[in-house]
Amino acid sequence: MHALALLAASVTVVGAVMVITRRVAVHAVLYLVVTLLSLAVILVMQGASFAAMLEVIIYAGAIMVLFVFVIMMLNLGHPDSAREKEWLRPRAWCGPGLLAAIVCAELLYCMGTFSGPARPFAPITAHDVGLSLFGRYVLMVELASFLLLAGLVSAFHIGRNRVGGN
Amino acid sequence: MTYTALTTIIFTPLVILGLATVLTWIERRLLGLWQDRHGPNRVGPGGMFQAVADGTKILFKQDWIPPFADRGVFVAAPAIGMMTVLLSFAVIPVTMGAGIAGNMNVGLLFVVGMMGLGVYAVVLAGWSSNSKYALLGGMRAAAQMISYEVFMGLSLLGVVMMAGSFNLHDIVAAQTGLWFIIPQCLGFGVFMLAGIAETHRLPFDLPEGENELGAGFHTEYSGMKFGMFFIAEYAGIVLVASLVTTLYLGGWRGPWLPAGVWFALKTGGMVGFFILLRAGLPRPRYDQLMALGWKVLLPLSLFNVMATGTILMLRASL
How much is the pLDDT for B269? Predict the structure, then answer.
């Protein structure tokens, strides 16, 4: 179990690195899908199979397909690849690299100091997720639905067929 | 892992691939029957070995990758299509206790997730071919499959609410007295339509629509890579038919005959129905397909969820 978790974690990290270094947009999206899928594997190992399946269905199966769809619509080709190369010069890596190093150091420090007992393995069912969504976190759910509604209204406004010019 | 589990894992994909191959012949014979012509009847008794002949031919064809294609993605696309379909079969409970992971607690979600990933095969094939017709086919596929996934998920909610579980075993067990096709007739209709759209079969095969797009997303494919798309499509039909059987037709349940036989009979009947649809219906226009989805199927499936919930709550309060 431990070796499998390590394998999935390293696939996640390698995939994430590949996402930011690819020059062709579709390749980057594909590596992002790999990252999401290996995250789902880690979630299954932690007993959160419901969350893992939602990750596969929503992130990997729907949102990333829409990314590919948009890339296909814009038909990004070779000029774009050259521009990406321009953006990926060593100088551009300084800022993000520094920030990532800070987060990484923090993570390592936390791992070094925290040595509590491992959480007992208890599968989280859809029932538990539903109860906490509509019980403890109901305010968050309502706020998220506000946000989605706002997004929907603005998408409708932008995509509206304007009759009579303008 | 036990020895039997290992053999199941090795043999299940082989059996499904064999079934899908034979299905190509069965479909052409049935189409011939319904359209008052012969169909392939020369190779072997009744034309039975036509599938073998086709398979041999396609294996020996030149496997050509166009120089303008994105090589890696071009090769990966058919493999993704095949893999997602075969993985979905892992959670289908053929009989009580059979199947590789029939008792998975989120089995139904697993199938939906794999179908969602199956979109990549078509979309990436369309993109990586780097040709107009393939790109148009891939874009149609992305929009069509993402839309119909929504209605498929919503229509499944009714079944999940009635069974109280995502486990496919429990869903079959919940259909002891009454098959879900009767209380969930609306959901059944929506699921059937969405299933055909998800496997992009005629009448909803607009991503390949040969009279307008050449061959759509697989225009540039040849040899066994094309063969993989082809076989994956037939395996997809078997998958949707076996899902309909499990979710709405009581799975392996039935009198007198053994459980596995009932499952095979129901699935076979559903596959036959899919072929009949292909024989009988013309292809709609693309905008008609999308309008049908968002203007008819979405309200219907939402109504189905609402009605099922209301009835279940009323029954619980009585």
Answer: 92
Q: What is the pLDDT of residue A38?
A: 92
Which of A62, A89, A116 corresponds to the end of one domain?
A89
pLDDT band for position A78 (cuts 50, 70, 90): low
Computed over every residue of chain A, the mean pLDDT equals 83
Best of A41, A56, A65 to disrupt the B interface (most B CBs within 10 Å) is: A65
Q: How many angstroms away from the CA of A56 is the closest CA of chain B?
A: 6
Mean pLDDT of all residues in A98-112? 87
C-alpha span between A138 and B274 (Å, rounded): 43
Q: How far apart are the first and last CA of chain A?
A: 61
Regions in chain B scoring below 50 on pLDDT: none
Which one of B120, B149, B165, B298 would you mutate to disrupt binding with A, by most A Cβ within 10 Å of its Cβ?
A: B120
Plot region of A123 (φ>0 → left; ψ -120 to 50 → alpha; else → beta): beta
> A27 vs B120: CB contact, 8 Å cut-off?
no
Contact by Cβ (8 Å): A21, A87: no
pLDDT of residue B305: 92
Instruction: Show the domain range for A79.
Output: 1-89
Instruction: Answer for the pair B271, B23: CB distance below 8 angstroms, yes or no.
Output: yes
B116/A24 CB distance under 8 A: no
A33 to chain B: which residues are within 8 Å by CB? 120
Q: How many residues does chain A have?
A: 166
Paired tokens of A11: 């696939």
In this predicted model, what pLDDT tens digit does every residue of B167-182 receive, in sequence order?
Answer: 888 888 888 878 888 8
pLDDT at A164: 61
- With residue A36 as reference, give the H or E element that holds it: helix A25-45
Taking CA atoms, what residue in A is nearest to B110? A53
Last residue of a domain, one of A44, A65, A89: A89
Task: Using the predicted structure, report yes or no on whether residue A66 has a pLDDT greater than 60.
Answer: yes
| pLDDT tens digits, one per residue of B65-104 | 888 888 888 888 899 989 999 888 888 888 776 666 667 7
Closest chain A residue to the Cα of B76, Cα to Cα: A30
> What is the pLDDT, as a whole number, of residue B301?
92
Answer whether residue A164 is part of any domain: no
Report the domain count for chain A.
2
Q: Which residue in the set B105, B113, B139 is minimally distant from A73, CB to CB? A: B139
User: What is the rounded distance in angstroms from the CA atom of residue B130 to the CA atom of residue B124?
Assistant: 10
**Binary contact (A68, B112; C-beta < 8 A):** no
Residues A76 and A134 in one domain: no
Cβ(B31)–Cβ(B271) under 8 Å? Answer: no
Q: Are residues A34 and A80 in the same domain?
A: yes
Give the distance from residue B48's alpha carbon to the nearest chain A alpha carbon, in angstroms. Answer: 38
Q: Is residue A31 part of a domain?
A: yes
Contacting residues of A for B104, CB less than 8 Å apart: 49
